Amino acid sequence: MTMAQMPVRPTEPAPPVPAAHRRGRVARRRRREDIAGYVFLSPWLLGLLGITAIPMLISLYLSFTDYSPLIPVTESNWIGLDNYRRMFTADPQYWHAVRVTVTFALIAVPLKLAAALGVALLLNKAMRGISAFRGLFYLPSLLGGSVALAIVWRSMFNGDGAFNSFLSIFGIEGKAWVNDPTWALPTLMLLAIWQFGAPMVIFLAGLKQVPIELYEAASVDGASAWRKFAHITLPMLSPVIFFNLVLETIHGFQGFTSAFVLSNGTGGPVDTTLMYTLRLYNAGFVELNMGYASAMAWVFLLVVGTITVVLFSTGRFWVHYSDSEER
Amino acid sequence: MHPITRSATPDQPTPAPHRTRRRLLAAALALPLILGAAACGDDSSDGGSSSDKVELSIFWWGADKRAELTDKALALYTTKHPNVTFKKTWQANQGYFDKLATLTAGGNAPDVFQIDDNFIAEYAQRGVTLDLTPYTSDGKLDVTKFPKSLKEYGEVDGKLAGVAMGENTQGLVYDKTLLDKFKLPAPTTGMSWEDFVAWAANVSKVAKVPGTQDPSAVYQALWVYLRQNGKDLYKDNKIAFDEADIAKWFTLWKNARAAGATPTPDVIHEGNDSSVSKQLVVTGKAGTSWVWVNQMPELKKNTKSELGVIAYPGDPSAQWARASMYFSVFRGSPHKDAAVDVVNFLANDPEAGKILGTDRGLPPNLDVRKDVSATVTDPSMKQTIQVQDELGTKFGPTSPSVPPKGHSKVKTELVRIAEEVTFGRSTPEAGATAFVTAAKAAIGQS
Fold first, then answer.
1. A24: pLDDT confidence band, cut at 50, 70 and 90?
2. Residue A34 to residue B17, Cβ atoms within 8 A
């Protein structure tokens, strides 16, 4: 959203004034109202500028320097594209983190959406106590990307955790899942997938919007449940799927908290959970190389931005808007 | 995104809103700069005189016990100097240095902060810490009662960057209760690495508890091992070992794992990843763990077992008296003299020394240390003192200098690469090559 779009203009017409004065007065009044508008906007505007825009621009500058948090910005040296060069050519851990993140997003995002859609379909039935179920399924997401949840996860999937106690009922001896290089990332994915509540609620709302007549008409024609799902539900739901896909993809790439907590901030074991954001954090706060971390952040922004744009451009081919007269 | 576009109707050629917008933008841009300038403008005044009211901020990491003891010692200082009060902040080790770096970046570093050899070189070379050398020559800071090596361990590029608050050395801690239960012999100081591995394998076999945590990722164990082989971790801000040394180290533990002396790799990782209170010897997942001797009370607090502690295997003269942690003074502090006086008090005052005990390590001042040894009541503190005193007689003549900038990265690289080998994803030789490369990169050695 740009500032040009902000609603700052009044709607009431100006009172009748002699034509000669009218222009100046109106302009002055508009100006006053503009100012009033900005004043009302200022909490948001200051937040945007102070917390997002200005720090972002500063970080862009810092990405061309060797800035460390221990020295004043003014004492850091301009090193041109060195940070970017190092990232792409001389930091194997960087590419490793990219691989981990892409793997995570490619697997966790579709599965999470599938889980969200599946549960939404189940919860879209009319039955007693359905709202209680809906609440129950949303619960994990209320806790969100919280640290507490990741700590619970960590202890659940530890060697002597609840999950292994459960497995032992069946005589299976589990391992310390979060401490095993093969299983640490899947454990992390499972945590992300389990928190499907937010897209589920959106799917549920989308499902309620599908006109019941379509299903009735299909039933009259003798369509099977699967055909109804594939030919009515999915196309009608495609804008919602698209929305969730974009949102969850961005989320997936940004995953930090759970990876940080599950690995004690290291991205271990042997870097198998070293998400991009975690590598970035460590570059900035452990290695105290904030310039390099800033460069990583900007590449990240550009890549995630590009992915979003690509998603949007594919939307044309598969997203179906039923209210197409407005488009 | 919203369909509200009234402000953009083309028949209103009013430049005014744009000007306002631009002016507002300028103001918004300037505001944080002004605030920032105001925040860092004042660092010249000095509340050194004894009657001015001074509030010093002080920041450390540690557990509850340390907070309790430090609180008491600082309260004692305030009793003696009523004009000085403290704004105390403390937290767990994890995240401490992130917070300290963030505070420093904002120009709000605490007047006095705890630091260790992971970061002291970095902070000193970046000019965050106050050079304390002048204070030692005019008597405001007394380090004359310190062991020489301990004082020198606080020097970076010839400047005193931190005052040691405790002395410790490597300690191999073992579960005595477990060994007694199975009538197994305790390990002894001076046994060779091979003998130790054989001992641990036997413990695994008899007690059905892995004999020892695999220390291949434990930097201080590698460090001792290197020194026993006539090498070192660093020398003159360069690494002082080669690939062959590391390959030998990794192979030693590969064989130990094959002999069943250690836990499985996932548990080894858990041990590497855990804080003091969750070391495998405490959680009962291994017979021994690789720690620092001053951590004994904290370890003891978390287990019912009786614990014993000895030197790391091999020749104990390769171990040294290390400053477990320091207090440093922020160079930008408005109350430098007062801050230095507090640090001096914590290090040298006999009463403060008795309060602090051995929580941060053996008291750095040898007179205070003697006092504390004579009066300490906590049994695990007693044990710490006794073991360290005994080891102290065995230390060799040379002790390493404080690790260079990038040391903490070297440590994390060792964990990563050693675990690659532990999990069988890399060979000892390939791991050695990778570690040498990574360590050089971390400390900026070309």
1. confident
2. yes
Chain A residues within an 8 Å CB radius of B102: 69, 285
- How large is the average pLDDT for residues B258-267? 94
Which of A46, A263, A266 is nearest residue B28 as measured by Cβ atoms?
A46
How do residues B364-391 score in pLDDT, each as one tens digit? 999 999 999 888 888 888 888 888 888 8
Nearest of B237, B217, B231 to residue B443 by alpha carbon = B237
| Buried b or exposed e, range A159-186, using 16+ CB within 10 angstroms | bebebbeeeeeeeeebbbbbbbbebbbb
**What does the domain layout of chain B look like in residue ranges?**
54-167+323-392, 170-319+406-443
CA distances from B132 to B70, B110, B116, B362, B364 (A): 22, 16, 16, 22, 16
Region B328-332 average pLDDT: 95
- 10 Å CB burial of residue A211 (0-12, 13-18, 19+) is exposed
- With an 8 Å Cβ cutoff, is A14 touching chain B? no
Chain A residues with beta carbon closer than 8 angstroms to that of B406: 287
Express each pLDDT in B271-312 by its tens digit.
998 888 889 999 999 999 999 988 888 899 899 999 999 999
A40 and B CB contact within 8 Å: no
Separation between Cα atoms, residue B250 and residue B228, nearest integer Å: 16
Domain A83-326 is in which class?
mainly alpha
Candidate from A5, A69, A266 with C-beta closest to B2? A5
For residue B416, give how far its alpha carbon lies from the nearest alpha carbon of chain A (Å).
5
Q: Is the Cβ–Cβ distance between B114 and B317 less than 8 Å?
A: no
Is residue A25 very low, low, confident or very high in pLDDT (cuts 50, 70, 90)?
confident
Distance CA A96, CA A107 (A): 17
pLDDT value, residue A325: 45
Question: Looking at residues A222-241, what average pLDDT do you find?
Answer: 91
B104 touches chain A (CB under 8 A): yes
| Superfamily of structural domain B170-319+406-443 | Periplasmic binding protein-like II (3.40.190.10)
pLDDT at A15: 55
Min Cα separation B367/chain A (Å): 36
pLDDT digits (tens, 9 = 90+) for A137-179: 888 777 766 788 888 888 888 878 889 888 888 888 888 888 8
Locus of tokens 């505001």: B31
Q: Which CATH superfamily is domain B54-167+323-392 in?
A: Periplasmic binding protein-like II (3.40.190.10)
Residue B26 at interface with chain A, using a CB cutoff of 8 Å: no
Indicate yes or no: CB of A54 within 8 angstroms of CB of B31: no
Instruction: Write down the ipTM of this complex.
Output: 0.78
Please give the single-letter amino acid code of residue B21.
R
Residue A7 near chain B (CB below 8 Å): yes
Number of residues assigned to chain B: 446
Give me B74's structure tokens: 């600082």
What does the domain layout of chain A look like in residue ranges?
A: 3-62, 83-326
CB distance B169 to B220 below 8 Å: no
Q: What distance in Å separates residue A71's CA from the closest CA in chain B?
A: 6
Please choose, from the candidates B98, B100, B133, B128, the residue with its C-alpha nearest in 3D space to the C-alpha of residue B114: B100
Q: Which residue has the higher pLDDT, B313 or A8?
A: B313
B151-182 tens-digit pLDDT? 989 999 999 999 999 999 999 999 999 999 99
**Please, are residues B170 and B162 in contact by the beta-carbon 8 Å criterion?**
no
3-state SS assignment for residue A265: coil
CB of B443 within 8 A of CB of B402? no
Residues A206, A211, A215, A221: is their CA dihedral positive or negative?
A: negative
User: Can you give the pTM of this predicted structure?
Assistant: 0.82
Phi, psi (rounded to 5 degrees) for A145: -85, 40
